[in-house]
UniProtKB/TrEMBL annotation, chain A:
The lineage of its organism: Bacteria, Pseudomonadati, Pseudomonadota, Gammaproteobacteria, Lysobacterales. Keywords: ATP-binding, Cytochrome c-type biogenesis, Membrane, Nucleotide-binding, Translocase, Transport. Residues 11-209 form the ABC transporter domain. NCBIfam families: ccmA, PRK13538.1. The keyword Transport applies. The gene is ccmA. It comes from Rhodanobacter ginsenosidimutans. This is Cytochrome c biogenesis heme-transporting ATPase CcmA. It comes from the Bacteria.
Amino acid sequence: MTAARTVAPLLEARAVSFHRQDEPVFVPLDFQLHTGELALVEGDNGSGKTTLLRMLAGLLHLGAGELLWRGEALQRDLCAGDILFLGHQLGLKADLSPRENLRVATGLHGTRDGTDIASLLAEIGLRGYEDEPVRRLSAGQKKRAALARLAMLPATLWLLDEPYANLDRAGIALVNDMLERHTGAGGAAMVTSHGMVSFHGGEPRRIRMHG
Amino acid sequence: MSRPSLTTACAAMLRRDLTLAWRRRGDIAMPVLYALIVTMLFPFALGPEDTLLQRIAGGVVLVTVLLAMLLALDAMFASDIEDGSLEQLVLAPQPLALMLGMKILAHWLTIALPLIVISPLMAALLHLPAPVIPVLLLALLLATPLLSLLGAVLVALTVGTRRSGMLLALMLLPLCVPAVIFAAGAVAAAQQGLPWLAPISWLGAALVLAVVLAPLACAAALRIALDS
């Protein structure tokens, strides 16, 4: 056992499941996620990947089982803002520009140390589109604007539902790069995807879902 | 890592909703035009008789403002649910009730305030005596936020149902009865030269209660709506 393993995991699930109309959506899950780790949630369509992430984020109630945050029972008030969720709906206002959307997010969450909106938007591939309403951006550019929020806000755990959807090859590389930097800086992430994640920072932990 | 203060977060939220309303400022004009046109219909329907119009003026202005607000009410949370902003708001490290309170405030500023601004014109169309107009304004200043708050709770409860606009009207209008009675009562009392402070105080008390409770109820209802 290495020293890292004696530290309580960032997030631990014990026999976690979710029921919809008394039917379990997925088979009870056990997993641990440590800081610096990336977990890949795999499963077929309808196997409950999105449901799992929404439940971990706190949007859905815990169906059964137990969730531990840093070794103690997870309390939403204590870890609010420490968990970021990016789902199919990106949470961007179509009438605001990427810059204005980021300003709202940082107004609510605060800013990650050493980031600023202008350079981040340029880095993420939205140079020249900073002040364009999100409505006029392409699907991939919208996704990038939503990814900028992840990079901008201070948080430990990222829950990303299909972060690669709509992105071109450079965008996919960008997501991998962001994940690497986030886990390298002591963060952790759970990602649902249908494969094709080329993560350089070691083999990601895999969580297999069964409907 | 420090979280922004509540003031910063409230300011960010208020600024966001006001900017969004400004980007769609055509939508702000619509309830105002609606209220003006409805008020103008009364003299046409009832005849230009001064005493009759004067007697009904206060009530007509109040009910018209109420109906105009109802038109814009069901849009309060709809776009935020559609684009996922509400999910992000629920996950933000700020009290959800307070953030929703800011949304309701922004909604009141963009929908009800323009109506209050044109209400003296509406009152003048119906020959309401000028000395009564300050009382009418005071009644509207207290009654409209009350309606926004009550409406917000009902909108939060009916999100996700189809044809929620009609359902909303059916649910909200009965709840408005006390507000209409007290507001119209104050205006009628002022018109007859009677003391009008009591009904205004009742409105104020109801508003204080709603300011405290409605955002909490909204937050609970929206959390339930997302949790499915």
